């Protein structure tokens, strides 16, 4: 058995085999970092890795590079408007000062975030300057994606941050002047927060905590919905209940297992988050 990743050729570690080898159809193995990057390009890899050979993986990477060299055509889809994978680099002093400020704001907001958001929270000092105030935050991800993260409201903008365990952060800005209104779709499993922009609607699923999502929406609704919109009677939107793909839930459970194995989560925290995720399968 090879002790190196078939793609990047780095030596495999115990973390790469903690939940089983990332084995390819030709016997090769991917490290977790490469698997994370490839599955972001093609989610099928995440669920059916054993059907792909290293040649298939290389082709996926090469095709992605080719696409990146082509002109970008924006479509009316639920996709990020802009992605910034390299947040601002700060001095240690500024980072610590911003971190203290953000910690105080999270405490004042009684933020109720899942264990999955620890990576995103660490990014916030790089993203939110000292003259910008957080007024709300909740677990949220782009609809129909695996980009779990947080949705943040400040006094100047809405901000989504998603950081995978092995990749860089994906950051999306929605400045106040680009948001025409917001809406909330009730769903017993996964309520949806919609940002109505000038040319399209961006949707976020909030499957970790329904009540927290409603609380967050109550904060942003009076900011982005004009009085005329609020006073006009509108039929209540109710989404048809559709189960979250089990593969997505199991992927989150695997991440939880890694966090516990590395001492980031206590057994109690692991059990609580596991209970919430398994409840979505019912």
Automatic annotation (TrEMBL):
Swiss-Prot/TrEMBL keywords: Coiled coil
Stretches of the chain forming a coiled coil according to its record: 92-119
InterPro entries for this protein: SHOCT, YokE-like_PH
Protein origin, superkingdom: Bacteria
Sequence ranges assigned to domain SHOCT in this UniProt record: 251-278
Signal peptide region: none
One Pfam family linked to the record: SHOCT
Domain YokE-like PH stretches: 130-221
Name of protein: Short C-terminal domain-containing protein
Lineage: Bacteria, Pseudomonadati, Bacteroidota, Flavobacteriia, Flavobacteriales
